[in-house]
Amino acid sequence: MAALTIRDVYKRFHSVEVLKGIDLEMDSGDFTVLVGPSGCGKSTLLNIIAGLERQSSGNIEIGGRIVDNIAPRDRDIAMVFQSYALYPSMTVRQNITFGMECRNVPRVQRDEAVGRVAKLLQIEALLDRKPGQLSGGQRQRVAMGRALVRDPLLFLFDEPLSNLDAQLRAEMRIEIKLLHQRLGSTIVYVTHDQIEAMTLATRIAVMRQGVVQQFADPETVYNRPANLFVARFMGAPPMNTLAARLEATRGRTVAVIGYGEAAIRFPVPPEAEGWNGRDVVLGIRPECIAEPTRHFSDLPGAVTTIVASVEMVEPTGAETIVVLRLGDERALGRVSPDVRHRLSETAQFAVDTRKISLFDPASGDRIT
Amino acid sequence: MRDTSFAPGRILIYLIVSLIAAAYLVPIIVVVLNSLRTSEEIAQTSMIGWPQRWAWSNYGIAWADFCVAQTCAGIRPYMLNSALVTIPATIISTLLGAVAGYAVSLWRFPGDRWIYGIVTLGLFLPQQMRLLPWTIVLRDVGLINTLSGLVMIHTIQGLSFTTLFCRNYYVAIPQELIRAARVDGAGFYRIFWRIVLPLSPPILIVTVIWQFTHIWNEFLYGVTFTTGQQQPVTAALIALTAAVADIPQYGVQSAAVMIAALPTLLVYVFGGRYFVRGLTAGAVK
Which long-range contacts (CB under 8 A, 24 or more apart) does B266-274 make? Predict the structure, then answer.
């Protein structure tokens, strides 16, 4: 069953179009992450789903019911806000039960529900404190508790982790994922952090300037980005996107970077044949470029060994990022920390060509 | 470090400050001293002087016995009038201002800026300009020469100020709080009552102090729209000075002035303390 259907939603503020025809469908149990740079319209879309803002046109359907004219309180949703939005004058317990209080749920039921959620989130000891007496992580938990206590059709998360420090953010990310696995709830989650999107989502909608660029599972978004924007936005460090041209060599299609002696050739899938003789943008993830001893695959032709000069190295400890010269362009590779390159030396690298993406340089759309 | 406390520049500053303070304090000191001297003593010596004999009875006479416009009940009934005007008008205008400020700051609606602008425009209209319109309104609603009429005027005029103050305080409340409460299922008044009002004591105390002192000290409307037994104490004090007697009753009159000024003084003394406490508590964040 579709838990949430967004049909052709537009949003205009005066003459500015913030959302330009959003169509998304989410199944029950999906963890959908709306991700994109700031100003892409993802928070506006979430507010429209919640009913806190009104779309200019299009429909929102929650649990098979069109909710366009239904107030937020009656949409069967719960929301977690970026600033947590805990009511400062109420205790944690009152914060969690406020929604039930507004709905005249009997006291006994409220207490029972608070107990259940407090146990789930391990905030039992905090119930009688005020939000001002809590740490950032504790406030985050309470904000989640306030949403979880309601058991709604749909959970909406608006950048819930962006106010936490890096370590706490990683911890809470794991907890949110565990909660989702345990409760099987349907979640729409807004973030600008592509790592959160990759780690949490079952489906990712990458947005830019009010348009959904790609809506797919994380693996597809990462390995087969629909266009150059998605390719460069997802992944850190980002995908290398290099100017190349396709040529037919001995009955096979290859992508060529650079000219003459220094040209580098990569095999590309036969579907790209139609682009022979034309310029393309070749995308390859940094982790697909490594030291020559790296074992990527046993498949014949999967790995191409290239020679390139090293412009810079960035050791991170777990691995070393190398900046290579490929033709006239720079590319990043990720090599084992045991490999020590000297600057401007020429070295061999293994390239996993199975994961090469090709894009149309004019439109930026994926070719194959 | 150089000790600056006796530097010539500093002495000069203290001198100037003391002079300014004295200029403000002298009239009050004169009134306080005169309120403790008998009228005979003032008449025989001068308006300025140290009491030869402490005349505490001035206060009792001013409070309950002195004759104002043919009635000899002191200023007590007029103090009561002032209280009956000031207290309801302060409470109602503060509460309405809080609701209005909440509406224009946290519930954005089409035209909210216009409404806010028009309401606060009232701050810039001179009082004299409003006299005639109010006369017509009071006549038409039948509240001329009543305390209720004054309550109405002060409530409505006070709204400009209370709305302005509350609105400027409430814009600091994060919008997300209101959004969260809406998703939780709370409506306009529940959000106000349960979330916004508990954050409001610091600003409510400021508005109450302001409204109370302004309404209590207000003179023009009191003297224009009420007569005789209906007058607030500020208007009655004028009638009191016009009282005819063998010798000018400066002593009793000074005592009456002191009594009339007491409530606003008390509000400052007590409210001011809560005000500072409210500010330091930092209720919103």
Answer: B267/B208, B267/B209, B267/B212, B267/B213, B268/B209, B268/B213, B271/B205, B271/B208, B271/B209, B272/B209, B274/B201, B274/B205
A73 closest CB neighbour out of B183, B198, B284: B183
Strand, helix or coil for residue B21:
helix
CA A102-A104-A107 angle, to 5 degrees, is 115
From chain A residues 318-357, the ones with a CB under 8 A of any chain B CB are: none
Superfamily (CATH) of domain A2-233:
P-loop containing nucleotide triphosphate hydrolases (3.40.50.300)
- pLDDT digit string (tens) for chain B, length 285 residues: 455 566 888 899 999 999 999 999 999 899 999 999 988 888 888 888 888 888 888 899 888 888 766 777 888 999 999 999 999 999 999 999 999 999 999 988 888 889 999 988 888 888 889 999 999 999 999 998 999 999 999 999 999 999 999 999 999 899 999 999 999 999 999 999 999 999 998 889 889 988 999 999 999 999 999 888 889 999 888 877 776 666 678 888 899 999 999 999 888 888 777 666 555 444 444
Residue span(s) of chain A under CATH 2.40.50.140 come to 240-359
Instruction: Please list every residue in chain B whose beta carbon sits closer than 8 Å to the beta carbon of residue A90.
Output: 194, 198
B179 contacts A79? CB cut-off 8 A: yes
Given a contact cutoff of 8 angstroms between Cβ atoms, the answer to whether B67 and B89 are in contact is no
Ranges of CATH 3.40.50.300 domains, chain A: 2-233
Residues on chain A touching B176 (C-beta within 8 angstroms): 81-83, 85
Q: Are A67 and A59 in contact (CB under 8 A)?
A: no
ipTM: 0.85
Question: Closest partner residue to A52 among B174, B177, B179, by Cβ?
Answer: B179
Q: Are B146 and B80 within 8 A, CB to CB?
A: no
CATH for the stretch B76-281: 1.10.3720.10
CATH architecture of A240-359: Beta Barrel (2.40)
> Does residue B184 belong to the interface with chain A, where contact is any CB pair within 8 Å?
yes
Nearest residue, CB atoms, A89 vs list B179, B186, B199: B199
